[in-house]
Structure prediction request, 169 residues.
Amino acid sequence: MTEALAALGARVEAHYAAVARGAMADLPLLNRALGVRLLGLQPWEGMALGVLVTPWAINLMLLPGSGPWPDAAPLSKQVWQFPSGDYPFVSAGDAGFGPYQSCSLFSPVLEFESMEAACATALAALLALLRPPMTLPEALPEALPEDAASAAEPSRRRWLLGRAREGGR
Prediction:
């Protein structure tokens, strides 16, 4: 990570740590097992991309980088295309570190028992975002026995009605 990205990440973490100690401190949706950490911060299409873990949410974060920053009104949505698909981000700005866009992954984060679990989940989400979706090889149904191939592709009627056999009533 470059010095500029590290400095930006430190500003974001310091800002949200102060928010956690201040404005958010007494809210019931706060998970007291979690802290604040910006993970995986890296260059992406002239911006900086990472995932922010806080005691109240886990969000993908786009921050200004070396390229132009999109001119967007606060709270407006912008869809970004990643290898895994298209994702809506909400534009915002903060006096502590400037403009950013975020995409909520978890909010609230009460299901996480530890910071370690939250960070592992956040990093897994970031890695999944940056990878194309997996597809099964087209030859797979031919490689399976006939009954396994038909079970792998149930008919719409069979799926909707939950029937064990296609013609059963």
User: Anything to note?
Assistant: The chain has a mean pLDDT of 85. The two ends are 62 Å apart (CA to CA). The chain is about 30% helix and 30% strand.
